[in-house]
Design a protein that fits this description.
mainly alpha; Arc Repressor Mutant, subunit A; 2 strands
């Protein structure tokens, strides 16, 4: 019988990513950080999260390099949590998740929509190939293949594809 493997121990980058930021509270904390929240009490009040859970998640995000902990007050010392470059880089993923959730709702059921900051018009986020601009939602046009660091098992899973 195969033993259970933690997601972050798997070779797959999706498993590794989920191991780092896929936890429910982590995504909501990051969403709040993108909305400008930086202080413990702001996160706690907005999310209704327990202080022990919030402390655990913030420590993890700081350890992962997603947030930076900075003092903003002396006597007593108080800290704020600011997105790093790595943290800011996950915004498109969170935007895409929210858009996917909204796509399953009627327009009048949506409690939050993404709009252009200048025009106020609703936008439809999509994931595209940077080189061609083609949407990546076509699972036949875009497929995974084994990368340079792939194990034999990963190579067996993904038959090498590419230009012929």
């Amino acid at each position: 019988m195969a033993s259970r493997i933690r997601l972050e121990d798997r070779e797959c980058p999706l498993s590794t990513t989920v191991g780092h930021v896929g936890e429910w509270w982590t995504l909501l904390i990051l969403h709040d950080a993108f909305d400008g929240y930086t202080r413990f009490d702001q996160f706690q009040e907005n999310l209704g999260i327990s202080s022990s859970m919030l402390t655990t998640r913030l420590k993890s995000l700081v350890a992962e390099g997603v947030l930076e902990r900075r003092p903003y007050q002396d006597n007593p010392t108080r800290y704020e949590y600011v997105l790093t470059d790595l943290g800011r880089s996950i915004r498109p993923v969170i935007v895409a998740l929210a858009a996917w959730g909204n796509s399953r709702l009627a327009p009048e059921e949506r409690s939050m929509i993404l709009v252009d900051a200048k025009t106020g018009k609703e936008v439809e986020p999509v994931v595209v190939d940077a080189a061609t601009g083609r949407r990546l939602d076509d699972s036949e046009a875009f497929v995974y293949t084994a990368g340079p660091a792939a194990s034999d098992a990963m190579r067996a899973r993904y038959v090498e594809t590419g230009p012929t």
